[in-house]
Design a protein that fits this description.
- The chain is α/β, with parallel strands linked by helices and 644 residues long.
- The chain is 55% helix and 6% strand.
- The chain is built from 26 helices and ten strands.
- It is globular, with a radius of gyration of 27 Å.
């Protein structure tokens, strides 16, 4: 194994790794207060609010009985009155009564709230200044573990390149700006792989205990890593083979029994860690199982809940590949990461020391993809746990190609047993004969790093500006008189802050379509001055389900073509941009709607790259497209009703 020291001194790879970690930390901590305290991410907001109510219940703060979920738990006893109370799911103040995400996230916020309150008063949403830095630190830990795994599996150069690309990957930067389970779960999933390798090498009981600890911590934030069972099984199978020096006929019951015993210990430790982090998953098992089944049912059926309608008709695999490659990782890193999966599968056929590492990575990535694609709902965060592993495989692919095409060195050829491998060997030998071609993989690696860094810095600009919804709120305050009637089209979506001074009516777009629904909409459109959208979620999803929303879909088509007398007054956007180049998403084309041009154009970049539709969960929290329409033609209620 390569070391970060040379003759007792720190070597240059150490300083490169330090630089990578510092850059990664800076990118993740920049713009921590990106939402100005409004909490536009609903899950993150829910964690803060629930932890705030739990803190008030525990401290018996005035009015705790009316705080959030506590209102619905009249039997909950304030304070910590004893073990008997804590073991009673109905009476315990530590039961969050909410299990879609790990309880540990709430407990951590409550603990830090106790500490912060020793020095200053703070409210629930202000805990973002604690939660988001913790998420950022977890992801910096991911960068480090990517290096550790890369070095352990494929060498120091692969580890450094993979960690650099992870530090610059936008999907990691963006998730680090939310206090959600993903960054923590990914960190401990990588830790589980490190522990697997350690267990295979050392074969001690304590190493299985450590592995169980890592798996339990990976489960604690969110129970969604069941495909981890396959690489775990493979790792213990490696251990069985090593116990008999790779001779399959020598495998006996004693070896299998000893290994299975260690695996059972690891499983028991993982279960114990999980239940210690979420005790009411056991003590309130009915509600826990109910929440898990509800989440699983939601994931399997697009359109079951309003915010999943956008996934109706999305193609398996292709949708996640496009979204993660274009928006999550950026081009060309996204292409490299996905191509690296079949590339690694080919190299896994080789008789070389990295074969085990290849199979271990594939045992996690490929079954996870197959499992996730059994769902109709395709949140980008579902594939986020796979991204560092795909980046690691991509870095290995780039450096393998650079080595294979280097004329001065003879690349190791693959075994001739496979016809496809024979063709690859022949192609590599032929390509090495072309002058200058040896530098192509090196140039590709430089391009990937440079483009990823450019996209990362461009994305950071999202956090350097006010959130579009906040900008829209300030515009309303400066330009629209109080009590002005406004239609807000943000049903099951986020909100424009501080509109309480206006007469706001929310169009319930996700209610079943009916003549009465359209009549009510016509009444409000006729009498309102403005129509505002927080994001493209309503029109981007309803138009994909014409069978359920024929009237509402027609409403959006007429609105965006000017048929309802409303024209776009302002569009508030915050596209990633850098050095005059902007990365623009298009929420309109996929919905079959024309892109409306505002009467007052916003600032534009000299070069705008329109990269197509971005998933609502990519743009909807930190940089949605906020639209404000003005009632120019003032059509009558009767005319609007006839049109609708």
């Amino acid at each position: 194994m390569h070391r970060l020291t040379l003759n007792g001194r720190l070597s240059w790879p150490f300083w490169i790794l330090v630089l990578i970690l510092v850059v990664g930390m800076g990118l993740r901590l920049y713009g921590t207060d990106w939402d100005s305290g409004y909490g536009f991410h609903p899950d993150e907001r829910d964690i803060y609010m629930r932890s705030g109510c739990m803190y008030e219940l525990l401290t018996e703060a005035p009015g705790y009985q009316n705080c959030g979920y506590v209102r619905d738990q009249p039997e909950a006893e304030p304070g910590l009155s004893g073990l008997g109370t804590l073991l009673d799911a109905e009476r315990s103040p530590l039961n969050p009564h909410w299990f879609p995400l790990g309880s540990i996230l709430i407990y951590v916020m409550v603990l830090f709230r106790y500490v912060v309150e020793l020095f200053t008063d703070i409210n629930a949403l202000e805990m973002r200044f604690v939660g988001r830095p913790l998420s950022a630190l977890a992801d910096v830990g991911t960068i480090f573990l990517v290096f550790v795994l890369g070095r352990r599996m494929f060498g120091q150069r692969v580890g450094l390149l993979a960690s650099a690309l992870t530090a610059l990957a936008v999907i990691h930067i963006q998730n680090s700006h939310f206090y959600r389970p993903e960054t923590f779960s990914v960190l401990f999933t990588l830790g589980s792989f490190w522990a697997m390798l350690r267990m295979v090498d050392r074969r001690r009981l304590r190493d299985s205990v450590l592995l169980g600890l890592m798996v339990g911590l990976a489960l604690a934030p969110k129970v969604s890593i069941l495909p981890l069972l396959l690489p775990l099984s493979l790792a213990y199978w490696y251990r069985v083979l090593d116990s008999v020096n790779g001779r399959w006929p020598d495998i006996n019951g004693e070896v299998v029994q000893r290994t299975a015993g260690h695996a059972v210990v690891a499983g028991a430790v993982a279960a114990a860690v999980f239940f210690l982090s979420a005790p009411y998953a056991l003590l309130d098992a009915g509600e826990f199982v109910g929440d898990l089944l509800a989440q699983a049912n939601m994931a399997r059926h697009a359109g079951l809940w309003p915010f999943t309608i956008q996934y109706i008709g999305t193609p398996p695999f292709l949708y996640q590949v496009q979204q993660s490659a274009v928006w999550g990782l950026g081009l060309p890193l996204g292409v490299v990461a996905w191509i690296a999966i079949p590339f690694t599968a080919v190299l896994a056929l080789r008789r070389r020391p990295t074969r085990r590492a290849d199979l271990l990575l594939l045992a996690w990535v490929v079954p996870s993809l197959l499992f996730l694609e059994s769902f109709e709902v395709r949140f980008l965060r579902y594939v986020f746990p796979l991204m560092p592993f795909m980046i690691l495989m991509g870095a290995r692919m780039l450096l393998w190609l650079a080595e294979a095409l280097r004329p001065a060195a003879r690349p190791p050829e693959l075994p001739q047993r496979h016809r496809v491998i024979e063709k690859i060997n022949s192609l590599v030998r032929r390509l090495r004969g072309f002058p200058g071609l040896a530098w192509l993989p090196v140039g590709l690696a430089v391009l990937v790093v440079g483009a990823t860094a450019f996209y990362a810095l461009a994305f950071e600009k999202v956090y350097s500006r006010d959130h579009p919804a906040v900008t829209a709120s300030l515009w309303f305050k400066d330009n629209v008189a109080s009590r002005t009637p406004i239609v807000s089209d943000n049903h099951w979506d986020e909100f424009i802050p501080d509109l309480y001074r206006y007469r706001v009516w929310q169009f319930p777009v996700y209610d079943p379509d009916s003549a009465q629904k359209m009549t009510t909409l016509a009444q409000h459109l006729a009498s309102s001055e403005y129509l505002v959208f927080y994001s493209g979620r309503p029109y981007g999803s309803v138009t994909r389900d014409p069978g359920r929303f024929p009237f509402s879909g027609s409403y959006y088509r007429q609105l965006f073509t000017g048929g309802l007398g409303y024209s776009l007054e302002r569009a508030f956007t915050s596209y990633p941009d850098l050095a005059g180049v902007a990365f623009r998403d298009d929420p309109f084309g996929r919905a079959g709607l024309p892109r409306p041009e505002p009467k007052v154009p916003g600032q534009s970049s000299p070069v705008t790259l329109d990269l197509g539709y971005a998933d609502d969960n990519v743009v909807g929290y930190d940089h949605p497209t906020v639209l404000v329409f003005h009632n120019d033609d003032r059509l009558t209620e009767r005319a609007l009703r006839r049109l609708l």
